[in-house]
Write a structure and sequence with these properties.
Strand order of the largest sheet of chain B: 6-7-8-3-9-10
Largest sheet of chain A: 2 strands, antiparallel
CATH topology of the largest domain in chain B: Rossmann fold
Distance between the termini of chain A: 41 Å
Shape of chain B: globular
Strand content of chain B: 25-35%
Number of strands of chain B: 10
CATH class of the largest domain in chain B: Alpha Beta
Largest sheet of chain B: 6 strands, mixed
Number of domains of chain B: 2
CATH topology of chain A: ABC transporter involved in vitamin B12 uptake, BtuC
Number of strands of chain A: 2
Strand order of the largest sheet of chain A: 1-2
Distance between the termini of chain B: 37 Å
Helix content of chain B: 25-40%
CATH superfamily of the largest domain in chain B: P-loop containing nucleotide triphosphate hydrolases
Strand content of chain A: under 5%
Oligomer: heterodimer
CATH architecture of chain A: Orthogonal Bundle
């Protein structure tokens, strides 16, 4: 729990190498592939942040669009007055505050209601932002003019993803991470062992929401012109859930395994079947939930466990001998 | 006479029209092993749930070493030093024995972490008879071994009061002997224990004093031999009005 095991050190080195390699991509291409990679890093950040909370608690949050949009709007509103870096942090803080309020109100209720509530919340925030904007100004959206090009956004998102992974790893090693594991196993045992389950779930939801808000803030310059339907697009919430579940939410790096193939599929689908994207996403969601309930990584772990078991127990002992 | 470790004063809990615990009061002294007995449905488990905070009493109060715990949430009561086992054994199924016990050591009355928590867990697993089985997944363990793990987890918080909810239920005769010896050992070490139990032999051999409940009320309290030969208690167990 305190010292680094060799496997952790190797995972850390492998992760650092992967991030460094990914960071060199804009040196080779600044067009289509960078754009595709930017999408992947965006969903890698969002799905990993989402899984920080939803993985251990099994609460499916559809509030991703709300946190994301708040981050985007923090940049849209503040860009003329505050440095960009500070706005990214503000976006994170605002999203965390919203997550805290939502968590305090809903995390005591059961899973299904939480899904509906978070979905409704994202829509509510979008409507409030639209309404306020129409009342206070004549424009529907906000312009975000910066000197950032796609490669800058890509690097910033990559750095954010690395920070999210590092945070997730630190949480897993901490009392908070162990407490979440216990809650995921049996919440009653958790409470009677002295764990303030409601408080810890809220803290984790806030951390997750903050990172999603920061991702939204970093992506604001990519849109150049932001308006509520794009910033609070519910499709973001759905895609994050689908990709994270496809990869598997039991491991920190699980969602990543879903993000890479699904981004490629989405790229293909949106190019070939632009009008049927929602249908494809819907079908993909059903297939994933039915065929791979524990995601790709979960399935691989099951297969691995079965393989080890058959090797470890070569011959079953006959019943008479056991008795 | 030693001080009261835990006192229950006029506790009441109703579920709709059914009063599961009705104006019950008793005390456990420090280092005492108190039996809480009664026919099925008499409110014993509800009483333990009130003490451990799984349920909130409608009236009355519960005091642990001078601190009123009856309005606290369950996790706060655990931190104050009340640990429990469950009538149907509750494991953390995805973890091994060691981590099931560490779970009790990290967040409860005694907040250990890292090597200290691991050492405490190994000592307790040895105490309950599971030395060398620390890394066995609890899902692969037998019922009695799971019960041992659960007991070790409760002890890992170094509780000031330990609640055992039919910990001996479901054990075969030889396991029962081991179980009784284990509880006796804990009691001899000075643990304050309240045990809900149906196994009368265990109550006779372990407890000095016991409280008898029937239909939500305390009907008797006192020395075990005296209480168990009391006509009202025998009536409660053998009578036909106990199927509530």
């Amino acid at each position: 729990m305190t010292r680094l095991s060799p496997s952790e050190i190797w995972t850390g080195i492998a992760g650092a190498v992967a991030v460094a390699a990914a960071a060199t991509l804009p040196l080779f291409d600044q067009g289509y592939y960078l754009s595709l990679a930017l999408n992947m890093v965006m969903y890698a950040a969002l799905c990993t942040a989402w899984t920080l909370f939803s993985g251990p608690t099994h609460y499916v949050s559809l509030a991703t669009a709300a946190f994301f949009g708040l981050g985007t709007y923090a940049v849209g509103l503040g860009l003329d007055y505050v440095p960009f870096g500070a706005l990214v942090l503000i976006g994170g803080v605002v999203a965390a505050i919203l997550a805290g309020l939502v968590g305090a109100a809903t995390l005591r209720i059961s899973g299904v209601y939480f899904v509906i509530f978070t979905f409704g919340l994202a829509e509510l925030v979008r409507q409030i932002v639209s309404y306020t904007q129409i009342k206070l100004s004549t424009k529907m959206g906000l312009y975000v003019f910066t000197d950032f090009t796609e490669k800058h956004i890509y690097w910033m998102l990559l750095a954010l993803t690395a920070v999210i992974f590092l945070t997730g790893w630190l949480i897993n090693r901490s009392r908070l991470g162990f407490a979440m594991q216990i809650i995921g196993n049996d919440e009653t045992v958790a409470r009677h062992s002295g764990i303030d389950t409601a408080k810890l779930k809220i803290i984790l939801f806030m951390i997750s929401g903050a990172f999603i808000g920061m991702a939204g803030a970093i992506l604001a310059p990519r849109y150049a012109y932001i308006e509520p339907p794009a910033a609070f697009n519910p499709m973001i919430s759905f895609l994050v859930v689908i990709m994270a579940l496809l990869g598997g939410t039991r491991r920190l790096w699980g969602p990543l395994v879903g993000v890479i193939p699904f981004s490629l599929v989405m790229e293909f689908v949106s190019a070939r079947l632009p009008n049927d994207t929602s249908i494809v996403i819907g079908i993909a969601f059903l297939v994933i939930v039915y065929v791979l309930p524990d995601g790709i990584t979960g399935r691989l772990e099951q297969l691995w466990a079965r393989l080890k078991k058959t090797r470890a127990e070569p011959q079953p002992v006959p019943v008479e001998e056991r008795a | 006479m030693t001080a009261a470790a835990l006192s229950v004063n006029g506790a009441r809990k109703a579920f709709g029209g059914l009063v599961a615990v009705n104006d019950v009061s008793f005390e456990v002294r420090e280092g005492e092993l108190l039996g809480l007995i009664g026919p099925n449905g008499s409110g014993k488990t509800t009483m333990l749930n009130l003490i451990s905070g799984a349920l909130k009493p409608d009236a009355g109060e519960i005091v642990l070493f001078g601190t009123r715990i009856s309005r606290m949430p369950a996790h706060e009561i655990a931190r104050q030093g009340v640990a429990r086992t469950f009538q149907l054994v509750r494991m953390l199924p995805a973890m091994d024995a060691e981590h099931n016990v560490i779970a009790g050591a990290v967040f409860g009355h005694q907040r250990l972490w890292g090597e200290q928590a691991r050492e405490a867990a190994h000592e307790l697993l040895a105490l309950v008879g599971l030395r060398g089985r620390e890394h066995v997944p609890v899902a692969a363990m037998t019922y009695i071994d799971q019960k041992r793990v659960e007991l070790a987890r409760a002890l890992a918080s170094n509780p000031r009061v330990l609640l055992l909810d039919e910990w001996l239920a479901g054990l075969n005769p030889s396991e029962l002997n081991i179980g009784i010896q284990l509880i006796e050992q804990l009691s001899n070490q000075g643990r304050t224990i309240i045990m809900v139990e149906h196994v009368m032999d265990a109550i006779r051999s372990l407890c000095g004093r016991c409280v008898v409940m029937n239909s939500g009320r305390k009907i008797k309290e006192g020395d075990v031999d005296e209480v168990l030969s009391d006509p009202e208690v025998i009536e409660a167990y053998l009578g036909d009005d106990d199927d509530a």
